[in-house]
């Protein structure tokens, strides 16, 4: 692990091999990548849509799926997000759940039962924080469950439509300091 890396309190991983096998069978040409916590990202091609913090390595699917990971990304450059979602509904990912990307045919797979809302609930309980004192801010499909969990939820102005619909409030866009505006209001009262 790099000396300046933040260490997670807990790490919830899954075996990516069955998921990788399902995805490469269902989506020919899919680019896959896995997060290597504290190290970087391993990918099957340079076109990975996943953000990389640290080392980036091109590997084959055997090496990619050789050890547990908290996150597996799939990018289908030759497909559409609608077709991808339809196929994923017909081909469940073994031991994992997934959330679709906001701007193209990509998904993030993660251990079954783990979500932002689930993790935040564990933190809330650990620190004895009342639910009504919790605030969630986000803009993507991966925030929907967290919005349902939070005492109060705020979607960014540029958020996907389902996030805006689920949130208690919609603030300005990220580029217009929507988070700062929300936090100023939240902590002023």
From TrEMBL:
According to the UniProt entry, its GO molecular function terms are: phosphatase activity
Q: Which domain of life is it from?
A: Bacteria
One Pfam family hit: Hydrolase_3
Name the InterPro entries for this protein. HAD-like_sf (IPR036412), HAD_sf (IPR023214)
The name on file for this protein is Haloacid dehalogenase
- Species per Swiss-Prot/TrEMBL record: Nocardia seriolae
């Amino acid at each position: 692990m790099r000396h300046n890396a933040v260490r997670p309190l807990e790490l919830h991983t899954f075996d990516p091999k069955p998921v990788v096998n399902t995805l490469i069978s269902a989506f020919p040409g899919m680019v896959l990548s896995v997060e290597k916590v504290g190290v970087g990202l391993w990918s099957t091609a340079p076109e990975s849509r996943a953000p990389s913090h640290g080392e980036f390595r091109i590997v084959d699917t055997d090496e990619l799926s050789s050890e547990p990971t908290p996150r597996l990304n799939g990018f289908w450059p030759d497909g559409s997000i609608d077709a991808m979602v339809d196929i994923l509904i017909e081909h469940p990912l073994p031991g994992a759940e997934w959330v679709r990307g906001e701007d193209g045919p990509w998904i993030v797979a993660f251990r079954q039962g783990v979500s932002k809302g689930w993790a935040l609930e564990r933190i809330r309980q650990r620190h004895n924080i009342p639910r009504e004192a919790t605030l969630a801010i986000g803009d993507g499909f991966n925030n929907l469950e967290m919005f349902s969990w939070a005492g109060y939820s705020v979607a960014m102005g540029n958020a996907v439509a389902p996030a805006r619909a689920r949130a208690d409030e919609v603030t300005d866009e990220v580029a217009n300091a929507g988070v700062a505006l929300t936090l100023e209001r939240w902590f002023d009262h």
